[in-house]
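// run 5 | inverse folding | seed 20
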């Protein structure tokens, strides 16, 4: 069973935990909170042709020591003497998720709200002053838990490679084939990392154990420090409109908009986290029933793929997105798919033949939420 934690506990080197009682999870495996697509995408990433060779080469080339020295010399390291409240949150998060070695944490001067967990040998957590100033204590606790979740899952290794390859791709953009090879791996890494963010959001909820605070934090990342102007239900409704709105053209645009991003859109993250918080899986973890790290060696890769495949199949069947509906119809053998495609693309094709009876289709008057297709550096908007 999970354990309640209260003020004065000292286990695994963690002490001075906050007085508010929270459930802790001794020996918890990251598999407990990882999104199915996170686990399978990572397996697929490792099977990507040429990735192992690139990874081994990069392991010796990445300037990790330089990176650590940079943060040590030009940022503030969190400790009992510096940003003590963040240090308490960090040890608290490690205590709850039973991560014995507390990662170093730095505060970096940057007005952009951001946080990340990087490092090949050992993870480093970095948060910006913009994030510290934006979030309240409970919101920040969820972010710190998010980053500790990345550390427990081993995401920091691939995050570091993603940062390096993104920078390298810009430097070798003038070499067509070289850039294409790097961007193939970068695209695969981004797809995995978007899924890993959903996993880390879940870890943040397990640490903070306050869904409202997690929602507030995501809203602030989207709309700034104006909570009096925002509403959680309306914010979540945006995610529904984004998924269901528009026609097949908008579905294609959604895919193109998300490809250059390392993170899912904020409203989507909020909706996914709320859905998970209401699931049986989350309740079982809170009741103390979860996979242990001691069992990780016995896990099956094929089982991971099957679980992910089942998740995607369910997603396609239940999705309101026009393209996902079409895929579901094709899989189900629905008739008149040609007519549905023509009507789905609206102006790109003529209307359906008159001799065909009308079938259900999406409302072309619906409009999707605003999309940002610009490429930004990978950031952990937690």
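// decoded
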């Amino acid at each position: 069973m999970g354990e309640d934690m209260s003020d004065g506990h000292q286990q695994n080197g963690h002490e001075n935990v906050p007085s508010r009682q929270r459930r802790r999870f001794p020996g918890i495996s990251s598999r407990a909170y990882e999104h199915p697509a996170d686990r399978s995408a990572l397996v697929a990433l490792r099977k990507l042709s040429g990735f192992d060779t690139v990874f081994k080469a990069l392991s010796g080339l990445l300037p990790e020591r330089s990176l650590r020295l940079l943060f040590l010399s030009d940022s503030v390291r969190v400790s009992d003497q510096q940003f003590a409240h963040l240090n308490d949150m960090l040890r608290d998060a490690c205590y709850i998720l039973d991560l014995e070695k507390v990662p170093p944490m730095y505060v970096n001067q940057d007005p952009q709200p951001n946080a990340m967990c990087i490092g090949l040998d050992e993870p480093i957590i970095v948060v910006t002053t913009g994030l510290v100033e934006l979030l309240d204590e409970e919101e920040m606790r969820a972010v710190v838990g998010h980053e500790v979740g990345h550390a427990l899952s081993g995401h920091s290794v691939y995050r570091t490679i993603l940062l390096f390859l993104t920078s390298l791709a810009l430097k070798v953009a003038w070499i067509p084939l070289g850039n294409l090879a790097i961007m193939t791996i970068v695209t695969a890494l981004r797809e995995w990392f978007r899924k890993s963010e959903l996993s880390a959001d879940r870890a943040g909820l397990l640490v903070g154990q306050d869904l409202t605070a997690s929602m507030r934090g995501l809203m602030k990342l989207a709309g700034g420090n104006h909570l009096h102007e925002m509403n959680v239900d309306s914010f979540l409704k945006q995610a529904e409109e984004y998924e269901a709105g528009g026609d097949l053209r908008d579905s294609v645009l959604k895919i193109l908009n998300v490809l250059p991003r390392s993170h899912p859109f904020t409203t989507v993250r909020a909706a996914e986290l709320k859905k998970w918080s209401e699931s049986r899986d989350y309740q079982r973890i809170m009741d103390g029933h979860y996979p242990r790290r001691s069992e990780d060696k016995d896990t099956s890769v094929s089982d991971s793929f099957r679980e992910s495949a089942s998740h995607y199949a369910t997603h396609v069947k239940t999705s309101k997105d026009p393209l996902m509906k079409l895929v579901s119809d094709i899989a189900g053998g629905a008739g008149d798919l040609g007519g549905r495609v023509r009507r789905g693309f609206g102006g790109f094709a003529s209307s359906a033949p008159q001799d065909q009876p009308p079938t259900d289709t999406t409302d072309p008057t619906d409009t999707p939420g605003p999309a940002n297709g610009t490429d930004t550096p990978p950031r952990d908007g937690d």
